[in-house]
Amino acid sequence: MTLWQLFFIFVYVGTFTIGGGLVAISLMQQQLVARGIISPEEFLNMIAISESTPGPVGINMATYVGYKLFGIGGSLVTTAGVVLPSLICIIIIAKFFGKFQERPLTRSIFYGLRAGSCGMIAFAVWQVIAVSIVDIQAFSAAAETAGGIRNLFGAEGPAAIGILIPPVPLVMAVAAALIYRFGKVHPLVLIALGAVGGILFL
């Protein structure tokens, strides 16, 4: 994998990230993990770091990968690659959108884009949940020991759910969501508390 190839991978990601940074997560997984550029474990850690640091998650992840593989120069190139398509598109849209925004074809296109983006965001949300709450590896190991997932659920259904969704991360996630929704706590505080909780309980 050359730096030039990596640049075009992130140009691709930046071009088709429609719906926000969470969509970039699923695209980067397809391009980076499937090609063996980043291991699955590194990718999951990259999501956690990118979500916990300032800035858009897609740009943070691009910078992270570029720096890890090619140093500071690589981080600049991958960041430019993921930003360039959006920059070009927004300049074009800003120039011409006012003339076409009320046309039926334009409105239909945006309806389709919103629907597609919704599905991609939903998939990205599941990936984040799988990283932070669901313990797929422990569940798979327990299923192999029990002789298959069917046996695991048939004999000890509640235990299987407990393996798949450990209670501590689930409680932390629900508590953070409730505090963020109904409280007046800054997200940075919740991120810090999550880090402390991970050190103490996980």
SSE arrangement:
Blueprint: H1 3-16, H2 21-33, H3 40-52, H4 57-100, H5 104-132, H6 136-146, H7 149-155, H8 157-164, H9 167-182, H10 187-201
Helix pairs in contact: 1-2, 1-4, 2-4, 2-5, 3-4, 6-7, 7-8, 9-10
Written overview of the protein:
By secondary structure, the protein is mainly alpha-helical. Helix content is 84%, strand content 0%. It has 10 helices and no strands. The chain has helices at 3-16, 21-33, 40-52, 57-100, 104-132, 136-146, 149-155, 157-164, 167-182, 187-201. The radius of gyration is 20 Å and the shape is globular. The model has no long low-confidence stretch (mean pLDDT 81).
What key attributes describe this structure?
202 residues; 10 helices; mainly alpha
Summarize the helix and strand pattern as letters.
HHHHHHHHHH
Please tally the helical runs, counting DSSP H or I stretches of 4 or more residues: 10
User: Which stretches are low in confidence, meaning pLDDT under 50 for 5 or more residues running?
Assistant: none
How many runs of DSSP E, i.e. beta strands?
A: 0
**Inertia-based shape:** globular
Structural class: mainly alpha
Distance between the amino and carboxyl termini: 35 Å
Provide the helix percentage. over 70%
Radius of gyration: 20 Å
Question: β content, as a range?
Answer: under 5%
Mean pLDDT: 81
Largest sheet: none
